[in-house]
Amino acid sequence: MINISNRNKYIKKYNFKFILKFKKKYLIIFKKKNINMIGEKSIFSSIYSLFGNKVFKLNRCGIISRIDKNTSGIIIYSLDNNFTIFFKKTKKCKTYLTVVFSKKKIGNFCINSGINIFGNKSIATKKYFNFSKTKIKIIDKVKDNKEYYYFLKCSIINGKRHQIRSHLKYKNILILGDKKYGKFNEICKESNLHSWRIKFILNKKKKKYYCLPSNENIYYYRKYKFKKLILI
């Protein structure tokens, strides 16, 4: 386990504003949009500058929670190998916020399907291998001419790569600004998918962490004049 007894010293020295919570066994981190998880100028490189070669003694270098490069929001970084094993096995729920486009009127629904990975793209299928489940709840909706725009809350238990994006695409529901799976044009240039909340149980206590949407996400909320905004 990495010793973080001098965490206040670390924060003051390196000014790591992206760390929301400094816990004994894990960090709660805010990842900005267009930042990679690994590589140069990534979340991992920032963690490495904080702890040095100690991170290589951790399973998977401590990376136990991932989100896509163009997705902003909350992730967890492990500081302890036992916590890494626990987090992989425990039941957890991750919730995302997003604004989507649909030609048809929709309601709350749940998607149960397999996820098949082809190269750098995931495709939802009816075949139940690599099974995954996404719960969709509508927070607010607006109608523009004959088109519908929805502000959604999407919850997953144990996620697969590109799960929410491919599941919504499977239902012909397009995330605004998503170049690969959604609706991308001159107006919608940035994906607005945001990792908003994560919940799990540790030592019989419920842990719940939130991360407020970035300004890029709020742009979409204001643009389509949603009246109901769920932040916390």
- CATH hierarchy, class of the largest domain: Alpha Beta
Name the overall outline: globular
Could you give a short account of the major beta sheet? 11 strands, mixed
Helical stretch count? Answer: 5
- Assess the beta-strand content as a share of residues: 35-45%
Uncertain parts? none
Structurally, the number of domains stands at 2
Structural class: alpha+beta
Reported CATH architecture of the largest domain: 2-Layer Sandwich
Radius of gyration (Å): 18 Å
- Terminal CA distance: 32 Å
- Helical fraction: 10-25%
CATH homologous superfamily of the largest domain?
Pseudouridine synthase
Listing every helix as H and every strand as E from the N terminus to the C terminus, the arrangement reads HEEHEHEEEEEHEEEH
Mean pLDDT: 82
Instruction: Please give the number of β-strands.
Output: 11
CATH topology of the largest domain: Pseudouridine synthase
Description:
- This protein is an alpha+beta fold and 232 residues long.
- The chain has 2 domains: 1-89, 2-Layer Sandwich (Pseudouridine synthase), CATH 3.30.2350.10; 92-232, Pseudouridine synthase (2-Layer Sandwich).
- The chain has helices spanning 7-14, 43-51, 81-89, 163-170, 215-223, and strands at 19-22, 26-31, 72-78, 92-102, 109-118, 121-125, 131-144, 147-156, 174-175, 194-202, 205-210.
- Strands 1, 2, 3, 4, 5, 6, 7, 8, 9, 10 and 11 form an 11-stranded mixed β-sheet that branches.
- A hairpin with a 3-residue loop joins strand 1 and strand 2.
- The longest helix is centred in the N-terminal third of the chain and has 9 residues, at 43-51.
- The mean pLDDT is 82.
